[in-house]
Please model this.
Amino acid sequence: QQPVQSPQAVILREGEDAVINCSSSKALYSVHWYRQKHGEAPVFLMILLKGGEQKGHEKISASFNEKKQQSSLYLTASQLSYSGTYFCGTAANNAGNMLTFGGGTRLMVKP
Amino acid sequence: NAGVMQNPRHLVRRRGQEARLRCSPMKGHSHVYWYRQLPEEGLKFMVYLQKENIIDESGMPKERFSAEFPKEGPSILRIQQVVRGDSAAYFCASSPIEDSPLHFGNGTRLTVT
Model:
């Protein structure tokens, strides 16, 4: 069963913050976050592993709550380049990158 | 260092024809994954391969679909007797080891007419 992402879509003004959530009904080993622009390949943002801590990448960070089987992606001081669709992908074990992706969250950043 | 290369970028097939999609992983990557994406939807896992081995094909339809990753040459996803429902973007991704980031190719957009 695929993880549920929320919100489905969000519109921001440049400089505003956003949080994207990913929730699974299964116990998770890892959560992966990718961003995809229209007509392009998904691009890796970060991986969070079971037992791992919150990770950050410039103004994008994420957390992983193993007990709740949830992950959140935090975008701070958004830039126009952040626009795209964000996908979380989950793995129930450490047997490779056979990820189950959520339905995506469409983010649009306006000037 | 070239990224994951997929070809063709666009493929049009009539119902009943065969489609062959190719993927060359990044240099040094021995793990290859195929994902399918329908318009406005997320990616669906199809198959996971290492050189000459299919590790997991649980996401691939049992009929008409097959995949290989030979010792030499690219990975091939083959769809026989295509139907309209096969129309989608097919993405290949590679990684050097398990639990490392996936590097995606630009995809092959298959249209079945």
